[in-house]
Known about the structure:
42% helix; 15 strands; 2 domains; alpha/beta
Amino acid sequence: MLKRRKTKKIKIGNLYLGGNAPVVIQSMCNTDTRDVKATVAQIKQLQKAGCELVRLAVPDLVAAKAIAKIKKRVSIPLVADIHFSAELAMEAMRSGIDKLRINPGNIGDEEKIKMVVLEAKKRKIPIRIGVNGGSLEKDILKKYKGKVTAKAMVESAMRHIKILEKYNFRNIVISMKASDVERTVEAYRLLSAKVDYPLHIGVTEAGTIFRGTVLSSIGLGILLHGGIGDTLRVSLTADPVEEIRVAWEICKALGLRKRGITITSCPTCGRTEIDLIALAKKVESELAFIDKDMHVAVMGCVVNGPGEAREADLAIVGGKGVGLIMKKGEILRKVNEKDLLKEFVKEVKKF
Amino acid sequence: MLKRRKTKKIKIGNLYLGGNAPVVIQSMCNTDTRDVKATVAQIKQLQKAGCELVRLAVPDLVAAKAIAKIKKRVSIPLVADIHFSAELAMEAMRSGIDKLRINPGNIGDEEKIKMVVLEAKKRKIPIRIGVNGGSLEKDILKKYKGKVTAKAMVESAMRHIKILEKYNFRNIVISMKASDVERTVEAYRLLSAKVDYPLHIGVTEAGTIFRGTVLSSIGLGILLHGGIGDTLRVSLTADPVEEIRVAWEICKALGLRKRGITITSCPTCGRTEIDLIALAKKVESELAFIDKDMHVAVMGCVVNGPGEAREADLAIVGGKGVGLIMKKGEILRKVNEKDLLKEFVKEVKKF
């Protein structure tokens, strides 16, 4: 098991974040928050895919008020994404939001900051400070000669943290996202050496499904493997359900979360004598909705097949027109290629 | 720039690996090597996709002899993947193979080992020792109580290395693949502290395109970000061309290689007022074949848009039914949503 950095534990609705809580998987709706029906439908889709916390854009008062209606119809905690406005933050809290994503340094004068922070404190609503490489404060940007460096991002985060701490507010989560791996990783490493607040990790503007999956897997993978990260959001220019799928796969790959069946399969080569690519795809889709904590392997040949099969609960090892079904490394039986999928799925269900 | 571990530089055909050479991107044909036509076609496809080194399965003498015919028709170096057979290694070398992937400890007695190693030395053919979690030596497996640990894999690698070093053979590349991230990373970290031979990195049996992309991005990402890895193979149960696509994306994400246009795009949210998912996809496919070293951003709104645009050569920042085209952070012009793609691609070509 990976050793995770020890962070402060906070509570968002009925969900724990940080401390010894599992890494929380979250996403953000891309619906218009004022459209309650569409937003509720997307939250439910996300929840079904495994999302545990959902953020909503709150660009105006209508959206802030809509939160109350949305809250009544969903069961997972919600985060209001607010920029520059103390009034919207107040309204979101009155509407029952579970967490705010707001940068206290840019919502107005001391009076306004105090109003928001004390209200959040009273209601036990955590605040996420979200530093983004694309929107650093002008004076910090100037100090770093116009370069959005990891240090500049950490300086921005620390400034917002100090504002909250001045009011003894410590119910804090922090994110610092850049659009590339290198700066994102460096910024989180620097900050995690300074504070013990839980960290929301992500690579921002990561791109389309393909590029975004690779970028997020690398960036979040490096951080999580190094013990950093209490909640994650994969950012894709795609249906947010895809973000959840990738987020789970990252957590599963690092042994941080468990969900469904893990499938190992080989890349096929000149030694493969069955149609393994098609078979692995079919096994993946047949097993997608079986909720068992087990490990199966789909292997093309006898060179690495038996070894992998030994480490799997159930495995297929392909031969010429046939396949062996193996259980914990022992041969169960030999099956013709055409019956292999059906028979294997049967064994998985029986397991 | 990432700091890479200093390794010995070796030569494979006309390609350098290790030392200060760029990270080499490789894959493996899944054609029958005896089928010269199909294999040559796949090598050419792989090369077009950006593959720099291709491995072929050599399960028998016919395949070993076919290498000579294949070599005549392709221009990138080839690696013969051989298991347990000194004879096949000898025949592959006579056929002009550029590199062997063979584990000297399992090709027979001292006589046979000597024959293969001296022949490779004479011909200046490098040998990759390929330790695989699925096929560890029985005595090592026994020593580690049947557990394929990272230490067990390193012990296996060191055993093969010592066999080659006994003959003063140092033209070596090493890989140690497990089917999970944790062991793979640990094994490479342990070995790279012991030897300075270039390392071939990969997560083996990573699975279907989706799972394999995530697993390889995390595993190879962690290693490369830590300076480890001189060549990489992404292992997917899919067309090997997909492996090359993922491998390039990993290297680009870490700034290790450059190829084509980098596209940053935001995840869309309730603030987005244009159809950004569709637009980003179209921009990605329109720019896929433009070979320019530039960075473009496709952003949905004015919160993070202008900041990202400042870091991009060219950017789209979406508004309501319109988009701004920006160059190095300065507004070039405002364009209606329906003309945005066409006008943007025009600007990219002009850049």
